[in-house]
Amino acid sequence: MKWALVGASTIADQWMVNAIRAAGDDIVAIVSGDLTRAQSFATKHAIPHALDNETALDHLGIEAVYISNTNEKHEASVCRAAAAKQHVLCEKPLAVALDAARRMATACDDAGVTMATNHHLRHNAAHRAMRAQVQGGALGQISSARLSHSVYLPKHIQGWRLTERGAGGGVVLDIAVHNADSLAFIFGDYPSQVCAMTSNTGMATGLEDNAMSIWQFPSGMTAFTHQGFNTPFAQTHVQIHGDKGSLHGEGILTQAAGGTLSLSTAAGTDAVALDNDNLYERVIKNLHLAIQDQAHANADGWGGVRSLCVAHAILESAATGRTVDVRYD
Fold first, then answer.
1. How many CA atoms lie within 13 A of 30 on its CB side?
2. What is the 8-class DSSP label of residue 114?
3. In terms of Cα–Cα distance, which of 264, 263, 281, 280 is closest to 272?
4. Do 93 and 141 share a structural domain?
5. Could you read off the pLDDT of 229-287 as tens digits, one per residue?
């Protein structure tokens, strides 16, 4: 399959070029609003075409696009690709505004092209093992989950994430969407209500760099989640608790494969074996399956919309001091 990259981003550079090529696909073009940046990226990765205009892709036989420009630009890029009958893999959050995200998913549906949201964390081996344990009944009746995704935002990608709400800045839009998707993948459902508080600890300018919230799911299960840009020594973790057992996952909310998972029951605590592999390569493999109308594990476009709905509810709850219903319609 022939790909174009829209956005000469860090994630494209460090992860997606290799993941696409590992699937046996070709990267034909890179597009950036800064032509010099596009040319530098193309030279580094031996990509034939460096462009500053997405319309030029229409004449290159492109079959799929990976979109990682800033979030407020996603809608135009996705809708152009859909109109050109090109399959779409788009970074998260899909957009800043919910209506924009809905238009993106609708455009791909109407055009008959496959759309995936790059929620890579669901492909972590521990996430997959947690899902299997929950579905297999190993924990019994699930009562609660605890998820801590507080990290230190690396210097080289701080920029707009700490200053520009209009581009999707702030820790909630950047990280909470991941957490909504992770728990939805594990439990098969999204929260119905959230109650949240956010704070600015001085790292961001005019935006939240720390957020904590309680989510309630339709089953009655509750989850505590923590997102942060400001904790350089924290360890990410996911815990799931039931009346027959608990799962404890550590170091499983990162871009790299790895981390540990243990299961505690009345019989004791045992490590769960994990078949760690590259999360982004799994995204591409599953996109191929989706294009072929086969069963796959990716978050589709509407999955990206739903995770964004959760993030918007968190921001609304923090702003109003109220528990907020998550509106998915």
1. 24
2. -
3. 263
4. no
5. 999 999 999 999 999 999 999 999 999 999 999 999 999 999 999 999 999 999 999 99
Based on the fold, state whether residues 45 and 182 are members of the same structural domain.
Answer: no
pLDDT at 73: 97
Within this chain, do residues 229 and 142 fall inside the same structural domain, yes or no? yes
Which one-letter DSSP state was computed for residue 98?
Answer: H
CATH number of the domain to which 214 belongs: 3.30.360.10
Range of the domain at 212: 122-277+299-325
- State which of 120, 143, 167 marks the end of a domain: 120
Please give the helix or strand (H or E) that residue 150 lies within, else none: strand 142-150
Domain boundary among 66, 96, 120: 120
CB atoms within 10 A of CB 23: 14
CA distance 159 to 164: 8
Q: What is the token pair recorded at 7?
A: 């956005």
| Cα 98 from Cα 100, distance rounded (Å) | 5
Residue 199 phi/psi, 5-degree rounding, is -150, 160
pLDDT digits (tens, 9 = 90+) for 168-226: 899 999 999 999 999 999 999 999 999 999 999 999 999 999 999 999 999 999 999 99
CB 177 within 8 A of CB 92: yes
Same domain? For 145 and 261 the reply is yes
CA distances from residue 87 to 111, 239, 282 in whole angstroms, order as listed: 10, 35, 17
- CATH number, domain at 62? 3.40.50.720
254 located within any domain: yes
Residue 58 and residue 100: Cα distance in Å, rounded? 23
pLDDT in tens, 38-61: 999 999 999 999 999 999 998 999
In a shared domain, residues 59 and 135: no
Question: Distance between terminal CA atoms of the chain?
Answer: 34
User: How many other β-carbons are positioned within 10 Å of the β-carbon of residue 49?
Assistant: 16
Predicted pLDDT at 236:
96
Q: Is the residue at 283 inside a domain? A: no
| Residue 31 pLDDT grade (very low, low, confident, very high; cuts 50, 70, 90) | very high
Same domain, yes or no: 102 and 232: no
